[in-house]
């Protein structure tokens, strides 16, 4: 029996996956990150104290649950060490609840320097988190990346690092007119920061293979969102990994039939995105400001204000198809409290007045479309911390039902506040 649940973002990330993974971890034995790196910011609460995780899976608060960082994740050793220390300062025994694959590739200072240099240029600006993700994944695909396990072979590591830094320094200095990266300093810092991490290197795929063979419950935790997927998202304004469910298999080393059981798509009750790129339902006026303030829509990694918009059914449908979504978790429904009328984008229209029901492929096509909305009444009452479906006002239920009708997917969890308890579980994805 397949008892895995993939929990991933349906929109552009920041849907509130951290809280949902934390909520569901009580039903699981393993929580696995399989893509992205410290560009992610997953917020969880420990006794009302806010913790932001970047690379460590969101099951880390639970004793007896093994949190795994699988091969598809990019590792910044410094940032991971700091995250471990920060969790320990809150009394969480993180090191003993964590294992990391030696096959993870490293994010090194030259990756961050290239990311920064590109973001300074108008022509190549994406609005990245400046964590070096793009250049690190590029090195992997170009077959010049360095893996965590390469550090066990110090001589080899030193030699390759020197060659790679020389290569990138040429571009940094001569093309980007930036400062070069110091090899010796990078080597020393990398070896120093690796000390703790190397102790928890394990064969993560093997652990997972065995867990699946025993039919143990596993959560695969996505980072970013489907529309930021390098293949399926709003390219080029995307991240550099596969954020959709196909990435689970490649990023963990487990065959798709084993690792992809139930796919729980986390949808925010409105939309947000950070960075540049198409956003047809973006709200620029006072309602946008209202939602940003109420939803505290500021990047957990960068602090940037998030762009805010209405929900977009076309995007969600695309996401359902490319992820094989089984059910939805609708988050931040309470943020819409007090909004007089709520819009749902049900199609696009191009400049010639033609209706469009699928999302465009070229970044140029996005410029020619505008959203067509269905309008629903809002509700006056506060939904904040509502924990019972029967207590939702009829307008909120109509909104949830309309999303279900338009997408053909049932909402099985509704989130009405930041803590675990502020949730309405209609059907538990582990009980199927
Ligand atoms: P990168 O992943 O830092 O290269 O950034 C590429 C794009 O993905 C930018 O638009 C970022 O704002 C966005 N992005 C990356 N990570 C996250 C995330 O965790 N939440 C939301 N957006 C993200």
Automatic annotation (TrEMBL):
Biological or metabolic pathway of the protein: Purine metabolism; AMP biosynthesis via de novo pathway; AMP from IMP: step 1/2
Gene: purA
Family matches, as InterPro entries: Adenylosuccin_syn_GTP-bd (IPR018220), Adenylosuccinate_synth_dom1 (IPR042109), Adenylosuccinate_synth_dom2 (IPR042110), Adenylosuccinate_synth_dom3 (IPR042111), Adenylosuccinate_synthetase (IPR001114), P-loop_NTPase (IPR027417)
Classification lineage: Bacteria, Pseudomonadati, Pseudomonadota, Gammaproteobacteria, Enterobacterales
GO CC term (a single one): cytoplasm
Organism: Riesia pediculicola (strain USDA)
PROSITE patterns listed in its UniProt record: ADENYLOSUCCIN_SYN_1
A single GO BP: IMP metabolic process
Residues reported in the UniProt entry to bind IMP: 14-17, 39-42, 129, 143, 224, 239, 304
Protein name, per record: Adenylosuccinate synthetase
Cofactor note (record): Binds 1 Mg(2+) ion per subunit.
Top EC class, one word: ligase
Xref: Gene3D superfamilies: Adenylosuccinate Synthetase, subunit A, domain 1, Adenylosuccinate Synthetase, subunit A, domain 2, Adenylosuccinate Synthetase, subunit A, domain 3
């Amino acid at each position: 029996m397949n008892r895995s649940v993939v929990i991933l973002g349906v929109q552009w990330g920041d849907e509130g996956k951290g809280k949902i993974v934390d909520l569901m971890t009580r039903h699981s034995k393993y929580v696995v990150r399989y893509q992205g790196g410290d560009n992610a910011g997953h917020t969880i609460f420990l006794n009302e104290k806010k913790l932001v995780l970047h690379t460590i899976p969101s099951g880390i608060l639970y004793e007896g649950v093994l949190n795994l960082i699988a091969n598809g994740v990019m590792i910044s050793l410094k940032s991971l060490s700091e995250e471990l220390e920060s969790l320990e300062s809150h009394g969480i025994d993180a090191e003993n609840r964590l294992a990391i694959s030696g096959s993870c590739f490293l994010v090194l200072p030259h990756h961050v320097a290239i990311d920064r240099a590109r973001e300074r240029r108008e022509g190549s600006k994406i609005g990245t988190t400046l964590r070096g993700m793009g250049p690190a994944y590029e090195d992997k695909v170009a077959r010049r990346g360095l893996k965590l396990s390469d550090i066990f072979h110090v001589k080899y590591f030193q030699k390759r690092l020197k060659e790679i830094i020389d290569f990138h320094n040429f571009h940094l200095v001569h093309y980007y007119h930036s400062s070069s990266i110091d090899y010796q300093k990078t080597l020393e810092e990398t070896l120093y920061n690796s000390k703790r991490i190397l102790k928890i290197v394990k064969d993560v795929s093997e652990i997972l293979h065995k867990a699946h063979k025993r039919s143990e419950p596993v959560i695969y935790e996505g980072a970013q969102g489907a529309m930021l997927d390098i293949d399926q998202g709003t390219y080029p304004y995307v991240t550099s990994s596969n954020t959709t469910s196909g990435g689970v298999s490649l990023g963990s080393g487990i065959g798709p039939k084993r690792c992809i059981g139930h796919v729980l798509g986390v949808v925010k009750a409105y939309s947000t995105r950070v960075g540049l790129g198409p956003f047809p339902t973006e709200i620029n006026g006072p309602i946008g400001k209202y939602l940003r303030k109420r939803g505290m829509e500021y990047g957990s990694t960068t602090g940037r204000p998030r762009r805010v918009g209405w929900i977009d059914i076309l995007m969600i449908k695309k996401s359902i198809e490319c992820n094989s979504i089984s059910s939805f978790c609708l988050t931040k429904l309470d943020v819409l409290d007090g909004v007089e009328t709520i819009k749902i984008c049900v199609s696009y229209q191009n400049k010639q007045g033609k209706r469009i029901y699928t999302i465009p492929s070229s970044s140029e096509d996005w410029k020619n479309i505008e959203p067509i909305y269905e309008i629903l009444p809002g509700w006056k009452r506060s939904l904040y911390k509502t924990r019972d479906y029967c207590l939702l006002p009829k307008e909120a239920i109509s909104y949830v039902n309309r999303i279900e009708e338009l997408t053909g997917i049932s909402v099985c969890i509704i989130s009405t506040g930041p803590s675990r308890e502020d949730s309405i579980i209609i059907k538990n994805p582990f009980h199927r």
